[in-house]
Design a protein that fits this description.
about 190 residues; alpha+beta; NADH Oxidase
Length: about 190
């Protein structure tokens, strides 16, 4: 199912309950191409994208568990299982990381925002393809064990895990926002 751009921008919502099927190989390529179209001052490409699917979800899950046990050695078996299975909540998870570089005209904050825009493009393309998606972070996004499992360098940081799959819930209507609550005009 393809959705037009206006519908996509005005009606996308987070869908936290996801199931199979996830995107196929061709759809995954579209998702990745969309991410790579993120605004990017000076064409630095200050991000890394890591596709996590199949057994890869278990591999990163073990890193989440390692972090959880290090942070709290008294973790119950239920909490350990939850930590280890976090990435199994969707058939496809895409980690988006900021990978800033030194540049005289592009501060790190702009590069971080570019990585966020890449993540948003993934969300929008997932919606356009008819999939549900949710952007997750939490303590695992910032954990050294997880960063290492993702193959990220010390200066790189996860801006989001984009979970993508078929909606396993009734998709809520997008909330209406009053433009005047957020926008001011000059001139």
């Amino acid at each position: 199912m393809n959705v037009d751009a206006i519908e996509c921008l005005l009606h996308r919502v987070s869908v936290p309950k996801l199931t199979e099927p996830g995107p196929n190989k061709e759809e995954l390529q579209l998702l990745l191409k969309a991410a790579l179209r993120a605004p990017d001052h000076a064409a630095l490409r200050p991000w890394k994208i890591v596709v996590i699917e199949g057994e890869g979800r278990q591999q990163i899950g073990r890193a989440c568990l390692e972090h959880a046990i290090t942070a709290n050695p008294e973790l119950s078996s239920t909490q350990q299982s939850r930590s280890e299975n976090l990435l199994k909540r969707a058939p496809l998870v895409i980690a988006v990381a900021a990978s800033p570089v030194e540049h005289p005209k592009v501060p790190e904050v702009e590069q971080l925002l570019s990585a966020g825009a890449a993540a948003q493009n993934l969300m929008l393309m997932a919606h356009a393809l008819g999939y549900g998606a949710v952007w997750r972070t939490g303590e695992y996004a910032y954990a050294e064990a997880v960063r290492n499992a993702l193959g990220l360098a010390e200066h790189e940081s996860v801006v989001g895990f984009i979970y993508i799959g078929s909606a396993d819930m009734k998709i809520p209507d997008a909330p209406e926002h009053n433009i005047s609550d957020f926008v001011s005009y000059i001139g």
